[in-house]
Design a protein that fits this description.
The chain has 255 residues and is α/β, with parallel strands linked by helices. Helix content is 45%, strand content 14%. Strand 1, helix 2 and strand 2 form a beta-alpha-beta unit. Bound molecules: zinc ion. This is N-acetylglucosaminylphosphatidylinositol deacetylase.
């Protein structure tokens, strides 16, 4: 009985890995993520995160994907992550990780705002964050934003506030020229199911209408690991487990 269960699990695991490789190598009729189909369609993309390490832990597959396709990526980190008094160290770690991820230093901005300090229970003003993001949009000619969804992957309140601030920005300014994408949070069971989750992720993204959801596979897993290793001050158990794929949903025009 146990032998049968273990064999079945191995078969499912191997089939899931094969599925991932098949997706990587197959061509789809769907336009690429953040592409409208044109070869020269390079975008000015702003990734908005709350803390140093968010970019490596949650977004590195997407960063690699965008950099490989020539998009111009900017990263805005809204705090130095000073909850444990390590803000200065974490800020430097972010720059080193971005170097690994091939995001130019001058396109990475880390804030240390009095009202946007790292911590559970520290609510961030959606209006303030929204204003800061809008300034970045205007300064850098941003036409696409990527950030957390309303659960914020880990449920951290700072991640969730960033999401709500982006929504507020899009709602208040009616900026229809800006696309906004959110990283879809998954249940803990799916998060730690490894490649097996590929079946659910691809099914749900393929059923989306008009290219409003994508499943992005990690094309540079070693690079992701190296980027995360730069955040040595955060190397605790929760930081070691990384997702191999990311699922995106369009939020911009759906608000
Ligand atoms: Zn975070």
């Amino acid at each position: 009985m146990w032998l049968l269960i273990i064999t079945s699990l191995i078969v499912i695991w191997v089939a899931s890995l094969c599925k991932m490789f098949h997706i990587s190598s197959s061509s789809s009729t769907k336009p690429d993520f953040l592409s409208r189909g044109g070869v020269s369609d390079r975008r000015n993309v702003l990734l908005v995160v709350a803390h140093p390490d968010d970019e490596s832990m949650f977004f590195s597959p997407t960063i690699s994907y965008l950099i490989a396709r020539g998009h111009n990526l900017h990263i805005l980190c809204l705090s130095v992550g000073n909850a444990d008094g390590l803000g200065n160290i974490r800020k430097e770690e972010l720059y080193k990780a971005c170097e690994v991820l091939k995001v130019p230093h001058q396109q990475v901005k880390v804030l240390d705002h009095q009202e946007l300090q790292d911590g559970f229970g520290k609510a961030w003003s959606h209006s303030l964050v929204s204003e800061i993001i809008e300034e970045e949009i205007l300064t850098n000619g941003i036409n696409a934003i990527i950030t957390f969804d309303n659960y914020g992957v880990s449920g951290h309140c700072n991640h969730r506030d960033v999401h709500h601030a982006v929504r507020k920005l899009l709602h208040d300014t009616s900026r229809r020229d800006i696309e906004a994408w959110e990283l879809v949070s998954t249940s803990i069971l799916r998060k730690y199911s490894g490649p097996v989750d590929i079946w659910i992720s691809t099914l749900s993204s393929s059923q989306s209408s008009g290219g409003s959801a994508y499943c992005i596979l990690n094309e540079q897993p070693r690079r992701s690991f190296r980027a995360m290793s730069k955040h040595s001050s955060q190397w605790v158990c929760s930081s070691l487990i990384k997702s191999g794929r990311e699922r995106w949903k369009l939020t911009g025009s759906a608000i």
